[in-house]
Amino acid sequence: SQKIEQNSEALNIQEGKTATLTCNYTNYSPAYLQWYRQDPGRGPVFLLLIRENEKEKRKERLKVTFDTTLKQSLFHITASQPADSATYLCALPTDAGNNRKLIWGLGTSLAVNP
Amino acid sequence: GAGVSQTPSNKVTEKGKYVELRCDPISGHTALYWYRQSLGQGPEFLIYFQGTGAADDSGLPNDRFFAVRPEGSVSTLKIQRTERGDSAVYLCASSLSVMETQYFGPGTRLLVL
Fold first, then answer.
1. What is the rounded distance in angstroms from the CA atom of residue A33 to the CA atom of residue A72?
2. Is B104 an 8 Å CB contact of chain A?
3. With an 8 Å Cβ cutoff, is B40 touching chain A?
4. Mean pLDDT (whole number) for A45-62
5. Please, are residues B4 and B23 in contact by the beta-carbon 8 Å criterion?
6. Residue B33 C-alpha, separation from nearest chain A C-alpha, in angstroms
7. Which of A4, A25, A112, B2 is the most exposed place for a label (fewest CB within 10 A)?
């Protein structure tokens, strides 16, 4: 079955730098992959979805890439701000052909220091 | 408009008791999902509704867990004979339809003593 691996160690960066978070999957390439942000005590908030036929997607300071050869997605936050500090989760469909049921990574905690 | 709401926000109960957790989805959203999240983990899928019917309940851990959505809007997750291992944050999400973006509620923090 599909498994997701995200950096388990917290990422600490300086304000203004680019944060790069990694999501690796182990099995089949999913039809899409999603990135969410989660703050303490809150539910996840959807950020971006990238489909298997898209190599890159952007939204304001966010950029997501999807490399089906490497079985990897990278999530970038440019010009990072302390307000970007949160846990970032990637999620993708559980099984090939079932796009309704998502599995999730453990999340990577990002701290942006002023 | 209002987002997904969940009640109660916190629930403390004793082992063996019965609990009900409620989810009010965004108005007009036909798809509703329940997840469970333990500390330091990602959400774990439990069940998904399309309208009133449970389209996929394969994530429910055992028969102590049950969920309903009788009118296709509000949903209740029911846990019988609670165990300490059931302690977690229970998240609800809704979407306009399957494959659309899921919007999450704040979760119910369940603690079983």
1. 10
2. yes
3. yes
4. 94
5. yes
6. 9
7. B2
